[in-house]
Amino acid sequence: MGAPPQLQIASASGNVFAYLWADAAPARFDGPAWARALCPRGTGLGLDGLFLLERPDPGGPWQMVHWDADGSETFCGNGTRAALAVRGAPVSPVLEVLSNGAPVHLRQGGGEVALRMPQGDGFGFRTADLGLPDAWAYAWIGNPQLVIEVPEVAAVDLPSFAPPLRRHPALAEGANVNVLQVLAPGRARIRSWERGVEGETLCCGTGCAVAGAWLAGRTGLRRWILQPAGADPVAVEVGAVERGHWEGLWLSGPVRRIGTVDPDPGFGLEG
Question: What is the distance, to the nearest Å, from the Cα of residue 45 to the centroid of all Cα atoms in its chain?
Answer without folding.
Answer: 18
